[in-house]
Amino acid sequence: MTTQLIHYVDEMNSPLGTLTIVATEKGVCHIHFGELTKCSVSLKAWLKKQGRKGEVIRCKETLQPICEQLEDYFAGKRDRFDVPLDLCGTEFQKKVWNTLQEIEYGQTKSYKEIAQQIGAPKAVRAIGGANNQNPVPIIIPCHRVIGSNGNMVGYGGGLDKKELLLSLEGAIEKIS
Q1: Are residues 23 and 7 in contact, defined by beta-carbon separation less than 8 angstroms?
Q2: Is residue 142 annotated as part of the catalytic site, yes or no?
Q3: Which of 67, 76, 161, 167 could cross-link with 157 by S-S, CB 3.0 to 4.6 Å?
Q4: Is the pTM of this model over 0.70?
């Protein structure tokens, strides 16, 4: 099923570099590590893969609330986000993403713990796959998921970004 929506897009500077943020009238649907000019091809591919059609309009005003919340997060003034989300994914992915939002700021959980929490103890690899497909990193804190041995493993934006986020939250010293 194809959804016809207007997608608002803008960039913001962050300690992780430039973030490109995409939202619809329903909510934030995608955050990409990188500048819009560098991610426009992958953004179009992502929209197509999600069955989304419609205009993509650059609009700072529409994205101002999420940019402000992200700025507050990076400044250490916010530990939760309360912007609406417009997520596309399988029911399993959405279940994982909802569970990730329950991981407290400054805390971590292993892929195994997430699998057990959602009642699918053998789905550790699938948890990793859902993490990798998280369309709104930072807001859905997939960076807070670590290996069962306590090591940082995998992050779509790169382990350097994961380390920075966990350090910002004071969780890095808890990781092996």
Answers
A1: yes
A2: yes
A3: 161
A4: yes
